[in-house]
Write a structure and sequence with these properties.
Distance between the termini: 28 Å
CATH superfamily of one domain: Golgi alpha-mannosidase II
Number of strands: 20
Pfam family, one: Alpha-amylase
Strand content: 15-25%
Structural class: alpha/beta
Organism: Pseudonocardia charpentierae
Family: Belongs to the glycosyl hydrolase 13 family.
Low-confidence stretches: none
Mean pLDDT: 95
Bound molecules: beta-D-glucopyranose
Protein name: Alpha-amylase family glycosyl hydrolase
CATH class of one domain: Mainly Beta
Number of helices: 13
Radius of gyration: 23 Å
GO molecular function, one term: hydrolase activity
CATH architecture of one domain: Sandwich
Length: 511
């Protein structure tokens, strides 16, 4: 059964979901205590951000042991208990996997620094001599995704000038060398370790990374020798071959590749099951842009017979309720886009807190914790603030201690408990949408060849579509004026209709 083709995944950003032990940071027992909520919400699977041993320079994306749980989140028993309980609630559990890099505190990297140039220990990473006088310049001009050079020079050594090591992210995240067979064997061990414990799959971080075109040979991708090299597909085939020994497990890639043809290569029959589209999250609230993003992704995955998967937000981008505009307009648009996302054919990813309509938090500089992100003025903290559960509790029920990021006062009216009681809340909208998606016959499509989606004519600034073979139509109005509803009975509307018309910043499902 290919359960993931149509599944709704819920991303738990573990530090910010629920804290069970009062240290102010979310943890595994905290998640376990919220499984009733997640079942009520109606999601099919969780995606947990990294839970592995880490010095937390990048909130767990810098890993010292891929097969150990960091004590801040709990321990292996807590993982086992969470998986068992989630399964009892009918929810599957997928976990983040970070194959591109380790922490600079990983035993391998420490050993590399302690070993001579050319040693097998160094070969697990990318060490190169510097350029210029005394090797004082980086080996090449590559930039890190987080800003600055992608190379850092190791401290001077007895045997001569230190080499430089490659890190596509922060200097605390040295890149592994994917031409080294030990690196492959270790990932295979990690996959089996977690699969044997019962995880239902992996979200693979930077799945278009890993293989680089270093040392002068021309790159195989169009323009970036750091990413999307042909060799990475061998890594995904290896991952897939391992997963295929475990029934019903899924590999999902965070594939940051814009070119549709190259994106599609990641979801060929023997590679990843799903690749998360990022174009929808990058689109403005504009019907044409949204439609182009949807068409691009569907054409890409359709060309290799894979299912699409849609994401509006995650722990790296501004939340929809802020990104599409400030205040009530942003909220209305985020609600409308949720209906678009959940009507599309394929899998969907929700980011914790989006179901509450949380805006980004405007944090004072001294409270910011994301030290590794240098895109202009932004940090990613604003979208990572802890989840509010109940207005009357200290820290809104997230923790009995001091939350690791301050929770803004305007989250008080967005708590889950209050929203569950309010039929007009964003949480109620998500619950109803997920229920309809699961149960309404208008969503059930018989398998059919050809395009997964049919577009209908729509006024300028609007779009309307349905999944091929179904009766459920979704219409979105991004224009400044109300427009007539398409034919059909409205099943769910993201905001009030205006005299029977679809107002601006609103989406509707009709059957
Ligand atoms: C993750 C980021 C992380 C980066 C480096 C991205 O794919 O989503 O949060 O900082 O990889 O691991």
């Amino acid at each position: 059964m290919q359960w993931w083709r149509d599944a709704v995944f819920y991303q738990v950003y573990v530090p910010s979901f629920t804290d069970s032990d009062g240290d102010g940071i979310g943890d595994l027992q905290g998640i376990r205590g919220r499984l009733g909520y997640l079942e009520l919400l109606g999601v099919d699977a969780l995606w947990l951000s990294p839970i592995y041993a880490s010095p937390m320079v990048d909130n767990g994306y810098d890993i010292t042991d891929h097969r150990a749980v960091d004590p801040v989140w709990g321990d292996l028993d807590a993982v086992d208990e969470l998986i068992a309980d989630a399964h009892a609630h009918g929810i599957r559990v997928t976990v983040d996997l970070v194959p591109n890099h380790t922490s600079d505190q990983h035993s391998w990297f420490r050993a590399a620094l302690a070993s001579p140039t050319g040693s097998p220990e160094r070969d697990r990473y990318h060490f190169r001599p510097g350029q210029g006088v005394g090797g004082a310049e980086p080996p090449n001009s590559w930039r890190s995704v987080f800003g600055g050079s992608a190379w850092t020079r190791e401290p001077a050594r007895d045997e001569g000038p230190g080499e430089w090591f490659l890190h596509l992210f922060s200097p605390a995240q040295p890149d592994l060398n994917w031409t080294n067979l030990e690196v492959w064997a270790d990932l295979d061990k990690t996959l089996r370790f977690w699969l044997d414990r019962g995880v239902d799959g992996f979200r693979i971080d930077a799945a278009h990374g890993m293989c680089k075109q270093l040392d002068g040979t021309p790159p195989s991708s169009d323009d970036d020798p750091r990413f999307d090299q042909d060799a990475v597909h061998d890594v995904h085939r290896m991952i897939r071959a391992t997963l295929d020994h475990y029934p019903e497990r899924v590999a999902i890639g965070a594939v940051g590749v814009r070119n549709a043809t190259r994106f599609a290569r990641y979801v060929r029959q023997d590679e990843l099951h799903l690749a998360v589209d990022t174009q929808l999250a990058a689109s403005r609230f504009d019907a044409e842009e949204v439609r182009a993003a949807i068409e691009d992704c569907l054409n890409a995955v359709g060309s290799v017979g894979a299912a699409a998967s849609w994401l509006l937000s995650d722990h790296d981008v501004s939340r929809p309720a802020s990104r599409y505009g400030a205040g009530p307009v942003g909220t209305a648009r985020a609600r409308a886009m949720a209906l678009v996302q959940l009507a599309l054919p394929g899998a969907a990813y929700l980011y914790n807190g989006d179901e509450l309509g949380l805006p980004d938090a405007d944090l004072p500089d001294e409270a910011r914790r994301d030290a590794v992100w240098h895109h202009g003025e932004d940090s990613r903290d604003g979208c990572r603030v802890p989840q509010p559960w109940e207005a009357d509790l200290p820290a809104y029920g997230f923790t009995t201690g001091e939350p690791w990021l301050p929770i803004p006062d305007d989250y008080a009216v967005l708590g889950a408990a209050e929203q569950l009681e309010d039929t007009g809340s964003t949480l109620s909208l998500y619950r109803r949408a997920l229920e309809l998606r699961r149960e309404h016959p208008g969503f059930q499509a018989p398998p059919s060849p050809g395009p997964a989606l049919e577009w209908f004519g729509a006024p300028p600034g609007c779009l309307a579509f349905r999944r091929t073979g179904t009766t459920l139509v979704c219409a979105l109005n991004t224009s400044p004026a109300p427009v007539p509803l398409p034919p059909g009975d409205p099943l769910l509307v993201s905001g009030p209709l205006d005299d029977g018309m679809l107002p601006p910043d609103t989406a509707v499902w009709l059957a």
